[in-house]
Amino acid sequence: MALRTAVGVLVVFLWSVAVVLGKNVWSVTYTTQSICTLKGSTVELTCSYTYPSGYTVTTTLWFTKIYNEENYVSLLDDPDYKDRVKYLSNKTNGHTLTITDLRESDSATYMFRFITDQTGGKYFGSPGVTLSVTDLQVKVTTTLLSMTLTCSTTCTLTDNPSYIWYRNSKIVQEDSSPSYSVYFKTEDSFYCAVNGINSPAVCECD
User: Fold this and answer.
1) If I label 39, which of 48, 110, 155, 160 is the partner at 20 to 30 A Cα–Cα?
2) pLDDT the model gives residue 204
């Protein structure tokens, strides 16, 4: 009786393992789920994916738009991204989406989809990667004796970049802080830069 019970438990256990493994056969894993970056820059979104053995992947794509249940618009075919998108696959089921010359209108949720050679063998990964694209502006706060300039964005930039401050086109500060202070009135012009992207110049003139 004890042996029969043990065998029954083992069968149930193995069945449970098979169910769990079956659920995980189809998957898409994104390297990061949220990115904030600058207008005019380049971004890379990466993921890896799995599917059942014996299947062959025939199509891979990234999308933000779905027109109907089976009409997922590849970014390569989306006129809003014309000549700004590249796909790169590797041999270990990794995939990279590169978008150049980013626009604020590119802010969206990006998802990866793949299709195999088997009937019904298709999958996309949710929730995807949320991309936020922001411009770079300088905010000015003044008092009687000082002026504080802050390199401002609408979201917190990914990867904690350095902020470079220019005064009359010469570098005066490079720091992780987005702020720069001047302790007297000046007619000089200032702007900040992050990863080669410049803000508009400002001048605190009398």
Assistant:
1) 48
2) 62
Token pair 């508009």: residue: 200
Residue 45: name the closest of 109, 114, 122, 126 by CA: 109
Task: Check: pTM over 0.90? Answer yes or no.
Answer: no
Class at the top of the CATH hierarchy for domain 136-203: mainly beta
Q: Give the whole-angstrom CA distance, residue 137 versus residue 120.
A: 49
- CATH topology assigned to domain 26-133: Immunoglobulin-like (2.60.40)
179, 162 contact by CB (below 8 A): no
What's the rounded Cα separation, in Å, for the pair 166 and 174? 9
Domain ranges of the chain: 26-133, 136-203
